[in-house]
Write a structure and sequence with these properties.
By secondary structure, the protein is of the alpha+beta class. It has one helix at about 105-135, and strands at about 1-5, 10-15, 30-35, 45-50, 55-65, 70-75, 80-85, 90-100, 100-105.
């Protein structure tokens, strides 16, 4: 779905399937995406890109790599980052709709949700290590 926006930008809606971006995005949320040039993207931005299999994927930009590649990763699982070509970027998340209510995503919310995700993964690792020491 494409939405005309008063600022002249085109916004697109993408339905989230799965929990790879939990807790900031959840299954069945709608992500509102605005066009963004790849060079304008910053670490921590939540972006939508077209994967090699043709699916649209919502993940976080972890870092910009050499040769025009982007390192992207979901917040919900502790999996290695994925590589995507800069040209595959559809746009940057401007907000999301959950339960019929729109929630904007500004830079502070992006960074806060990323910090929560990183803290969650570090805590899980710590608890697993502590449990192994007790055995």
């Amino acid at each position: 779905m494409i939405i005309p926006f008063s600022g002249g930008f085109l916004m697109k809606l993408f339905k989230v399937t799965g929990n790879s971006m939990y807790p900031v995005l959840r299954d069945n949320d709608l992500v509102v995406v605005k066009e963004a040039a790849p060079e304008s993207l910053r670490r921590g931005n939540i972006i939508v890109y077209r994967a090699d299999n043709g699916q649209s994927v919502v993940h976080r930009l972890v870092k910009k790599g050499k040769g025009g590649f982007l390192h992207l990763k979901g917040d919900g699982y502790n999996l290695p980052s994925e590589l995507a070509k800069r040209e595959s970027v559809i746009g940057k998340a401007a907000g999301f709709v959950r339960g019929g209510r729109y929630e904007p995503l500004d830079r502070m919310k992006e960074l806060h949700s990323w910090a929560v995700s990183l803290l969650k993964e570090r805590t899980k690792r710590f608890v697993r290590r502590a449990a192994r020491v007790r055995e």
